[in-house]
Amino acid sequence: MNASTATVELQIPLAVPRTRAWEALTAEIDAWWLGDFRVVAPDSTLSLDLRAGGLLLESKPGGGSLLWFTVTMVTPGEGLHLVGHIAPPWGGPAVSMLSLMLKDAEGGCVLELTDALLCPDSMAKAEGLEAGWKALFGTGLKQHLEGAPA
Fold first, then answer.
1. What CATH code is carried by the domain that includes residue 99?
2. Which end of the chain is more exposed for a tag (fewer CB within 10 A), N or C?
3. Rounded to an integer, what distance in angstroms lies between the CA atom of residue 60 and that of residue 66?
Protein backbone atom coordinates (compact mmCIF):
# COMPACT_ATOMS: atom_id res chain seq x y z
CA MET A 1 0.00 0.00 0.00
CA ASN A 2 1.44 3.37 -1.03
CA ALA A 3 0.90 6.57 0.93
CA SER A 4 0.21 9.95 -0.58
CA THR A 5 -0.29 13.44 0.77
CA ALA A 6 -3.03 16.02 0.59
CA THR A 7 -3.51 19.39 2.24
CA VAL A 8 -6.69 21.00 3.53
CA GLU A 9 -6.59 24.77 3.93
CA LEU A 10 -9.42 26.82 5.45
CA GLN A 11 -9.86 30.39 6.58
CA ILE A 12 -12.59 30.91 9.17
CA PRO A 13 -13.42 34.55 9.98
CA LEU A 14 -14.26 35.17 13.63
CA ALA A 15 -15.94 38.38 14.79
CA VAL A 16 -13.89 38.61 17.99
CA PRO A 17 -10.40 39.88 18.81
CA ARG A 18 -7.56 37.39 18.40
CA THR A 19 -6.98 37.29 22.19
CA ARG A 20 -10.57 36.16 22.76
CA ALA A 21 -10.38 33.58 19.96
CA TRP A 22 -7.14 32.19 21.44
CA GLU A 23 -8.75 31.79 24.86
CA ALA A 24 -11.71 29.91 23.36
CA LEU A 25 -9.57 27.81 21.03
CA THR A 26 -7.28 26.61 23.80
CA ALA A 27 -8.89 26.96 27.24
CA GLU A 28 -12.57 26.51 26.33
CA ILE A 29 -12.25 23.60 23.91
CA ASP A 30 -14.76 21.42 25.75
CA ALA A 31 -17.42 24.15 25.46
CA TRP A 32 -17.41 24.26 21.65
CA TRP A 33 -16.34 20.74 20.67
CA LEU A 34 -19.40 19.37 18.86
CA GLY A 35 -21.22 16.28 20.12
CA ASP A 36 -20.76 14.48 16.78
CA PHE A 37 -16.99 14.69 17.36
CA ARG A 38 -17.09 13.13 20.82
CA VAL A 39 -15.93 9.61 20.02
CA VAL A 40 -15.38 8.13 23.48
CA ALA A 41 -18.82 8.94 24.94
CA PRO A 42 -21.52 11.60 24.55
CA ASP A 43 -20.61 12.99 27.98
CA SER A 44 -16.85 12.98 27.42
CA THR A 45 -14.72 16.06 28.03
CA LEU A 46 -11.96 17.58 25.91
CA SER A 47 -8.79 19.04 27.34
CA LEU A 48 -5.70 20.61 25.82
CA ASP A 49 -2.31 20.71 27.56
CA LEU A 50 -0.91 23.85 25.98
CA ARG A 51 2.81 23.03 25.66
CA ALA A 52 5.02 21.09 23.28
CA GLY A 53 4.36 17.43 24.04
CA GLY A 54 0.97 18.29 25.51
CA LEU A 55 -2.09 16.33 24.54
CA LEU A 56 -5.48 17.13 23.05
CA LEU A 57 -7.35 14.46 24.94
CA GLU A 58 -10.95 13.26 25.09
CA SER A 59 -11.86 11.51 28.36
CA LYS A 60 -15.06 10.01 29.70
CA PRO A 61 -16.22 9.82 33.30
CA GLY A 62 -15.19 6.56 34.93
CA GLY A 63 -12.32 5.93 32.50
CA GLY A 64 -11.66 5.63 28.82
CA SER A 65 -9.92 8.18 26.66
CA LEU A 66 -8.82 9.06 23.15
CA LEU A 67 -5.67 10.95 22.15
CA TRP A 68 -6.72 13.29 19.35
CA PHE A 69 -3.42 15.13 18.85
CA THR A 70 -0.01 15.80 20.38
CA VAL A 71 1.09 19.44 20.49
CA THR A 72 4.36 20.02 18.63
CA MET A 73 4.56 23.83 18.90
CA VAL A 74 2.74 26.64 20.68
CA THR A 75 3.05 30.33 19.92
CA PRO A 76 0.93 31.86 22.71
CA GLY A 77 -1.88 34.02 21.39
CA GLU A 78 -1.08 33.11 17.79
CA GLY A 79 -1.10 29.44 16.95
CA LEU A 80 -0.72 25.74 17.51
CA HIS A 81 0.87 22.91 15.58
CA LEU A 82 -0.34 19.38 16.33
CA VAL A 83 0.21 15.85 15.03
CA GLY A 84 -2.42 13.13 15.24
CA HIS A 85 -2.84 9.55 14.13
CA ILE A 86 -6.07 8.32 12.59
CA ALA A 87 -6.89 4.67 13.23
CA PRO A 88 -8.74 2.42 10.74
CA PRO A 89 -12.16 2.74 12.45
CA TRP A 90 -12.08 6.48 11.64
CA GLY A 91 -10.67 6.30 8.11
CA GLY A 92 -6.99 5.53 8.79
CA PRO A 93 -4.30 4.59 8.80
CA ALA A 94 -3.26 8.22 8.48
CA VAL A 95 -1.17 10.95 10.03
CA SER A 96 -2.59 14.46 10.33
CA MET A 97 -0.29 17.47 10.79
CA LEU A 98 -2.61 20.28 11.86
CA SER A 99 -1.74 23.97 12.06
CA LEU A 100 -4.17 26.44 13.69
CA MET A 101 -3.06 30.07 13.33
CA LEU A 102 -4.96 33.20 14.37
CA LYS A 103 -4.41 36.39 12.37
CA ASP A 104 -5.80 39.84 13.09
CA ALA A 105 -8.39 40.98 10.55
CA GLU A 106 -10.88 43.79 10.16
CA GLY A 107 -13.79 43.16 12.51
CA GLY A 108 -11.97 40.47 14.50
CA CYS A 109 -9.58 37.76 13.40
CA VAL A 110 -9.23 34.80 11.04
CA LEU A 111 -8.45 31.22 12.00
CA GLU A 112 -6.14 29.82 9.32
CA LEU A 113 -6.31 26.03 9.41
CA THR A 114 -3.90 23.83 7.45
CA ASP A 115 -4.05 20.05 7.73
CA ALA A 116 -1.37 18.06 5.89
CA LEU A 117 -2.48 14.46 5.61
CA LEU A 118 -0.31 11.41 4.91
CA CYS A 119 -2.23 8.22 4.08
CA PRO A 120 -3.42 5.91 1.32
CA ASP A 121 -6.01 7.65 -0.88
CA SER A 122 -5.26 10.98 0.75
CA MET A 123 -7.42 13.06 -1.62
CA ALA A 124 -10.61 11.22 -0.63
CA LYS A 125 -9.69 11.46 3.07
CA ALA A 126 -8.92 15.18 2.70
CA GLU A 127 -12.44 15.87 1.43
CA GLY A 128 -13.91 14.26 4.53
CA LEU A 129 -11.49 16.10 6.80
CA GLU A 130 -12.33 19.43 5.19
CA ALA A 131 -16.03 18.92 5.90
CA GLY A 132 -15.22 17.89 9.47
CA TRP A 133 -12.97 20.87 10.13
CA LYS A 134 -15.59 23.24 8.69
CA ALA A 135 -18.15 21.79 11.09
CA LEU A 136 -15.90 21.77 14.15
CA PHE A 137 -14.29 25.18 13.74
CA GLY A 138 -16.64 26.97 11.33
CA THR A 139 -19.70 25.97 13.31
CA GLY A 140 -18.66 24.81 16.82
CA LEU A 141 -15.95 27.37 17.61
CA LYS A 142 -17.59 30.17 15.61
CA GLN A 143 -20.97 29.77 17.33
CA HIS A 144 -19.30 29.58 20.73
CA LEU A 145 -17.51 32.86 20.08
CA GLU A 146 -20.19 34.76 18.21
CA GLY A 147 -23.31 33.31 19.83
CA ALA A 148 -25.17 32.78 16.55
CA PRO A 149 -25.22 30.09 13.84
CA ALA A 150 -22.42 30.36 11.30
1. 3.30.530.20
2. N
3. 9
